[in-house]
Design a protein that fits this description.
By secondary structure, the chain is α+β, with helices and mostly antiparallel strands. It contains one helix and two strands; from the N terminus they run ββα. Helices cover 33% and strands 22% of the residues. The chain has a two-stranded antiparallel sheet with strand order 1-2. The chain is flat, with a radius of gyration of 13 Å.
């Protein structure tokens, strides 16, 4: 599956856990811009999780 800025792979495990692997579509973004977006998204998810009760996906790993 792909959107305008990212492609994604959905993974379902036998125990019912579901993950989404998402990565920027490099052909549309410079490496610098993609890195800035990724860092902002990770920081935003972690901030919301720490300061509210809004359910957000857990970020297991990311790499720039």
């Amino acid at each position: 599956m792909a959107g305008s800025l990212n492609w994604a792979v959905f993974v379902s495990f036998d125990d019912g856990v579901k993950w989404v692997l998402r990565s920027p579509r490099r052909s549309f973004l410079s490496d610098e811009y993609a890195s800035r977006i990724l860092l902002s998204e990770v920081a935003t998810l972690r901030y919301i999780k720490a300061h509210s009760q809004v359910p957000v996906p857990e970020v297991f790993a990311y790499r720039i």
